[in-house]
Amino acid sequence: MTPAARVSAAIECLDLIADAARAGGAAADTVVARYFGTRRYAGSKDRRAVRDLVFDVVRSIGDCPASGRGALIGFARARAPDLLALFGSGGHAPAALVAGEPESTLSAAPAWPLDKLRARAGADTPRQAAALLGRAPLDLRVNTLRARREDVVIDGAVPTAFAPAGLRLTTPLAVEALPAFHAGLIEIQDEGSQLAVAAAGAAPGMTVVDLCAGAGGKTLALAAAMANAGRLVATDTDRGRLGRMDPRLQRAGVTIVERRLLDPGHEAGQLSDLTHAADLVVIDAPCSGTGTWRRNPEARWRLTTTRLERLVAAQARLLELGAALVCPGGTLLYIVCSLLPDEGDAPVADFLARHPEFAPQPFADPFADPINGAPVATLVTTPADHGCDGFTIARLTRL
Questions:
Q1: Using CA atoms, how far apart are residues 201 and 347, in angstroms rounded to an integer?
Q2: Which residue spans within 162-239 are E strands per DSSP?
Q3: Cβ-contact 74, 56 below 8 angstroms
Q4: Last residue of some domain: 68, 86, 104?
Q5: What domain count does the chain have?
Q6: What amino acid positions are annotated as catalytic residues?
Q7: For residue 13, is it within any domain?
Q8: Per-residue CA distances from 367 to 135, 162, 336, 380 (Å)
Q9: Nearest-CA neighbor of 380 among 344, 342, 347?
Q10: SS3 track for the chain
Q11: At the N or C end, where does the chain have fewer CB atoms within 10 A?
Q12: How many whole angstroms separate alpha carbon 58 and alpha carbon 46?
């Protein structure tokens, strides 16, 4: 592909990504992979170049663009003016520029979520927002059921700063091709996600419910913390995601997990046998994903005030559902990969106001001075401050 043809391909990908964002369709990575799946003539260098350009544009345009062409023109005018000379250059190049044609304006995100982020970060908002759009490292979690971190050697990997079983790479790696992966020694998991599981305090012999288990990333980490001893119930309402957990469990050597597919709206009845029976309930609630914009920058294009309202309502409902399962003295851990107070602080505060039988339960702050640091009941991680994805983590106990 010529440089001009790569620009045309990037515009087509951007149109597809924007359409998927508006329709709630596939993620940008999937869209790009599907695009090249039908274009076998494109070599690996072409694919990589187009993908890099596409994601540079997505990271630079905060609002969902009206067109991929307008998005790329706006990006090029501000960041890569040499690309403008390729328009109208013939062959497979995009059509020549037209005076006054629409183009996107560069921004970190739509104004309204930045205003909400400012409620948490204050004057530090520009730095926090910029870090949310940087390139994320590749974090791995060593499966302590099969190995110790110091025994797993992967070229370029270094121990994570805060998660005791984590490894970090700053360059791409085909993890699923590694012998260590096939042997069940490692899983891909961001350090922030690992710290969220550590905050749960899971231990051998417990009865634990992972209420929004998905494909099982945190379920696997919980099983490792439990030394594969106890009862771990992993639930979700998405059959496809829950089904992807089984091969991961087998590879990791986890045998204590009971998977339950729940019917939306009927979850309470299907979990009635666990009422007040769980030592620990983990709620990794669906959220806006603002803390993971580094990995999914097009998520900014999907977020609307209406969608945020629906997510907040779902978070409140899940807190009620999970609370009913916690035994006296047990723990309710609430996690969102969001930095918006609407999804982190507010749902927890509202829940505690309705439930005097629950109280904040402090846990060790992994970022604090190990000697003088005080425990916290809520932990917020950010790419800017901690180098991991953004999470809000709150731990509560039933009195």
A1: 22
A2: 166-169, 186-188, 207-210, 231-236
A3: no
A4: 86
A5: 2
A6: 337
A7: yes
A8: 22, 7, 19, 10
A9: 344
A10: CCHHHHHHHHHHHHHHHHHHHHHCCCCHHHHHHHHHHCCCCCCHHHHHHHHHHHHHHHHHCCCCCCCHHHHHHHHHHHHCHHHHHHCCCCCCCCCCCCCCCCCCCCCCCCHHHHHHHHHHHHHHHHHHHHHHCCCCCEEEEECCCCCCHHHCCCCCCEECCCCCCEEEECCCCCHHHCHHHHCCCEEECCHHHHHHHHHHCCCCCCEEEECCCCCCHHHHHHHHHCCCCCEEEEEECCHHHHHCHHHHHHHHCCCCEEEEECCCCCHHHHCHHHCCCEEEEEEECCCCCHHHCCCCCCHHHHCCHHHHHHHHHHHHHHHHHHHCCEEEEEEEEEEECCCCCCCCHHHHHHHHHHCCCEEECCECCCCCCCCCCCCECEEEECHHHHCCCCEEEEEEEEC
A11: C
A12: 18
Q: How far apart are CA 194 and CA 163, in angstroms?
A: 6
In tens, the pLDDT along 40-82 reads 888 999 999 999 999 999 999 999 999 999 999 999 999 999 9
- Please report, as a single letter, which amino acid is at residue 175: V
Listed residues 86, 111, 134: the one ending a domain: 86
For the stretch 14-50, pLDDT in tens is: 999 999 999 999 999 999 999 999 988 889 999 999 9
Q: What is the mean pLDDT of residues 181-205?
A: 98
Torsion of CA 308, 309, 311, 316, to 10 degrees: 140
Chain center to CA of 106: 24
Residue 225 forms part of a structural domain: yes
* In a shared domain, residues 68 and 212: no
User: Global pTM?
Assistant: 0.95
Taking the alpha carbons at both ends of the chain, their separation in whole angstroms is: 65
Q: How many whole angstroms separate alpha carbon 333 and alpha carbon 177?
A: 34
Give the domain range for residue 71.
3-86
